[in-house]
Amino acid sequence: MNKEFEPKILGILCNWCSYMASDLAGTSRSQYPPNIRVVRVMCSGRIEPQLILWAFQQGADGVLVGGCNPGDCHYQEGNYKALRRVTLLKTMLPQFGIEPERLRLEWICASCAEEMRKTVEEFTNTLCRLGPLKVQIPQIIPVTGKAVVEYVQT
Amino acid sequence: MLLRDEFSKNGDIRIGVYVCDCGTNIAGKVRVPEVVEYAGTLPHVVVAKEYKYMCSDPGQDMIRREIKEQKLNRLLVAACSPHVHEETFRNVAAQAGLNPFLFQMVNIRELVSWVTKDPDKATAKAKDMIRAAANRVLFHEELEPLKYHIKRNVVIVGGGIAGIHAALLLADSGEHVYLVERESSIGGHMAMFDKTFPTLDCAACILTPKMTMVKSHPNITIMSYSEVVEVNGFVGDFKVKVRKKPRYVDEENCVGCFECIDACVFKDARYPNEFDFGLGKRKPIYMPFPQAVPPVPVIDADTCIEFKTGKCPKECLKACGERAGIDFAQKEEIVELEVGSIIVATGFDSFDPKKMPQYGYGIYSNVYTSLEAERLFNASGPTAGELVLRDGSKPKSVGIIHCVGSRDENHNRWCSRVCCMYSMKLAHLVKERTNADVFNFYIDIRAAGKGYEEFYNRTMEEGVQYIRGKVAEVTDNAQTKDEEGKLVIRVEDTLLGMIRRIPVDMVILSVGLEPQHDALEVTKMFNISCSGGGWFMERHPKLAPVSTMSGGVFLAGACQAPKDIPDTVAQAGAAASEALALSHKGVIEVEPNTAFIDETLCSGCQVCVGLCPYSAISYDQEKKISILNQALCQGCGVCAGACPSGAAQQHLFNDSQLMAEIEGALAGVL
Ligand SMILES: Cc1cc2nc3c(=O)[nH]c(=O)nc-3n(C[C@H](O)[C@H](O)[C@H](O)COP(=O)(O)OP(=O)(O)OC[C@H]3O[C@@H](n4cnc5c(N)ncnc54)[C@H](O)[C@@H]3O)c2cc1C
Ligand code: FES
Q1: Closest chain A C-alpha to B212 CA, distance in angstroms
Q2: Whether the complex's predicted ipTM surpasses the cut of 0.85
Q3: Which of B248 and B669 is assigned the larger pLDDT?
Q4: Residue whose CA lies nearest to ligand 2 atom number 3
Q5: What's the fold here for domain A9-150?
Q6: H or E stretch including A124?
C-alpha cells in the first residue's frame, strides 16, 4: 500500500438519504478520511454514466455513488435505475483500463452516519491499495446534448 | 485547463464568496482567512469575505449590501449544510434583488470541519468545495419557484390521542379533517388505560369527551375500520386512497342502541375480545369497549354463524328492524380523498415478551403484560377494575419488571421512556385496589417530567418496594416453603450486592414500545424515512420535530419515538399548526428543480416516458418528441440521467452544472 498516496474520491450523493447521512456524520462528529469531495444530486437516478466517466477523466481515483436503501428512494425507484447503470458501467470500466472497484455504489440511509463513515474509510483504503488511476482517459465522454457540447467547447 | 475562466455565458459574471466561521465550528478546523484569500483568486470572484456568523443579522446585512454595491450576480456562501441554511441565504439574495437560484451553498461544516481531523486537510477540502461551487454557479440561471395551490383538507392517519387532538384543533380552525383509523374505534392505547400518570386522571374522563367531540364535529369525518392504501401527489395536492373494511353495520343507519348485540344468538360472549387481549369475551357482533367511537357495532365474519354457515336466524337483523343498520352484504370500499396535507399519527406497538421466555409470559398464567394489567384495572374492562389472578382471587404480592425488551442489546436498545412511569402507576394501582406487596424491579428510574419524580416518591411512601437490578428469570421452581405455589423472581439486587429470590403471586412485565409492525410499509406509502429502530424520522431532530422530508407530511405522537401523553398531545398540536400554517398560506412555493426537455434535441426515443415515476412525460405523436408536464414533475432527474441525446435536463442539476462542479471539486491536489 502506498502510504504517501492520497486518493481523490468523488462522492455523488442523493439529497434524501446518503447526503443526509453525511450531514449526520458531521453532526455526530464522526471522523473519516478527508479524501472525498461531495456533489449533491436530488436522486441517485439522476446520475448518468457520463458524469462518472467525467469524474475519472477529471482526476478522480474513485467514484462513490450514494443512494437510498432499496424501496426507500424519495422518488420511488431512482436508486434501481442507478443500480442498473452502475452495474453496466462497471462491466465496461476495464475496457478503459479502470478497475471496477474504483466505482462504488452504496445504499446509505438518512440515519446511517456510521455506515457513511465506514464507507469512506474502506473506499479510501481500497483506493490506496489500487494506487493512483494512471490511465489517461481520452475523449471517452460521448458528447451529446446542447449543454454538454457547449460546456466541452468552452 | 482547470477552470473555465473565459466562460461567460451571461455576460460579465461577478461572484461573491462568503465564508462563515460558525464561531469555532468551522474556524476551529478550517483556516478561514486562507480559504477566503484563495477564493478571491478564483476567476470571476470579485469579493470574498469571512464573518463569524454569516447567518446572523450583521452577516446577512453585509451580503445584501455587497450584492448591491459590488453588483454581484452570483452568490456563494460556504457555511453549514444546505439543509440548514440554504433557505436563509436564498432569501438574502432575493431581498437584495438577486435571483435566489443564482446562489449556491457550500457545506464546509457537516462535510468538512466536523469530520476532518487534520486542519491542513480540512482547509484544502474547503478550498476544493468552494472552487467546485464557483465553477458551478457560472452555469446557473435565473429561475422562478413553482407555485401551487394548497387544498385545505387534511387527512390524519391514526386515531389515537395524537390523531384525535390534531383533528380537533384543525377542525376547530375550519379545516376539514378525515381521521383514518384502522380499528373499529378511535382512541388508541389511551382508551385502554384506567388512570394516567403522574396526575392519575381517569383516562376515560379526559379521553371520552374528546372522542365524542370528534364524532360530532361537523368538520371531521371519521373513517374507522379503514386503512390508507395508496398516496399520490405532493404537498398541497395529495390523493389518498382509503380502504374501508366492511363492518357489516351501516354507520349512517345505526343509532347506537346495541339491541343487535343483546339479540345475538350467542347469549353469552364467548370469543376473546382483542381490545382486552383476550382477558374479556365478546360476541360475534360487538363493541370493543363501551365508549367506542363511532358507537357502531362490528360483526366479526370469522365467528358470525351467518357468515360461516348462512343458517343463522339473524336475530340481530330482526332486532334492528326498520332501522336497517345490519347489512350482511356490505362490501369493502375504496374512497379517494383529496387533501393538502397529511398527519401520520400511527402510534406504537408493544414488545412481545414471548421473545424473552425467561420471564415466563405464555408459560405461567399469572405473568401479565402491562397492557393486560391496564385492562384489568380499567373500570369498564373485563374485570370491572378488579385486579385478580386467573383463578379469580386477589394477589397478595405483585412483582413489576421494568424495561422488558428495552435497553437490551438482544432486543431494543432504546429506552421506551414511559415504562418507569407507567410501572409506578401500576404499582400505585395495585396498592390501591388490593393492598398487596409490590416490588418494582428496575435498571434505572427515569422520572424526568413535570411531577414525575414527585410521583415516584409518592409511590415509595405508599410502600412500593424498588429493587435495582435486571431480573434474570421468573420461575415456579420453589426452593423453600414460602416459594411454593408462587412465581419466584430471581434478580441480582445491585444495591445490596446479592442475588435475591422474591416469591410473588402475579408478575407484570413492563413491555417496551416498538414501532408499529407495519411501520416500514407506512413509510413507503407516505414517502417518509425511518430513524434507527424504525421510528419515523423527523426533518430535523430539534428544529423541525414534526415535519418530515416529504413536504406536507407531518408526524405526531408515538410513531416518531416513544413518548407519554403530554408530549404526544404537544406534538399533535405542533403538527396541526404546521398543517394549518401551510393551508393558510394558500399557495406553496416549490423548488424549481423540475426537468425540461429541449425540443430541438429530443429524438423521440421515449426512454424517459417509461422511466418517469410520476407519469409526467408523455409522447407527442404529432411532433414526435417527448413532452414534460411541469406540474407533475417532482424533480428527481431520472429522465435527465437517462436521455441519450441530452435533451432531458434538470433545472439546478443540469449536465453543465454538474460537470462544472465535478471538475472544480477534483482540480485540487490532495
Ligand atoms: C402500558 C402502558 C401504559 C401507559 N400509561 C401512560 C400514562 O399513564 N400516562 C401517559 O402519559 N402515557 C402513558 N403511556 C403512553 C401512551 O400510551 C402514549 O403516549 C400514547 O398512547 C401515544 O398516543 P398515539 O396517538 O401517538 O399512539 P397510539 O395510542 O398507539 O394510537 C395510534 C392509533 O393509530 C392507529 N393506527 C396505527 N397504524 C395505523 C394505520 N396504518 N392506519 C390507520 N390507523 C393506524 C392505531 O390503531 C391507534 O388507534 C402508556 C403506555 C403503555 C404501553
Ligand atoms: S432519492 Fe435517494 S436514491 Fe432516489
Answers
A1: 38
A2: yes
A3: B248
A4: A67
A5: Rossmann fold (3.40.50)
A6: helix A113-130
